[in-house]
Amino acid sequence: MSRDRTLDIRLELADPRELFAAPAADPLAGRPHADSGVDRILNRLRPKSGCNVRATIVLPESARAPDLEARTRAALARYFDARIAHNRNDNRSLWHEGRATLTRGLLFLAICMLGSHIVGEPKYLHPVLARFLDEGFVIAGWVALWWPLDVLLYQHWPLARERRMYEILKSMELKFEFAG
User: What confidence score (pLDDT) does residue 4 get?
Assistant: First the structure.
């Protein structure tokens, strides 16, 4: 990686379609990858997600075509537009689920707090049992909020990071080389 924060990636593909579709792995033939070219680029970008990407695609001479670069750029743009749209939909679904589960969790917490107040009075039960049930209700109520709070506070961050990577790759610098 250079100082201008550009990640240089070199992919050797047998066919331009391998950029989007995973080829069969064949380690004996020197092709150990079972991922598409895009997935391999994403894998390399993940630890350095704040940088630009310069990808060199190495193809066999037989894949050379006059409009290959333009078609590939257009296909990459469509591909990443679709992935970004899918990601945004996942994020909206996650927020909806978080709000819905938070409502149920708060209702359950309120019921547990009421239960804690009712059974926590030592005049109705033995003091040890009353304390056990009192603490149990409170703990159960707060545990019911863990998932909704996790969804609302933390689970959207990986989706946002993934979307930023798609946007970086959509505008990545692309170069083709042909091996003879």
Answer: 66
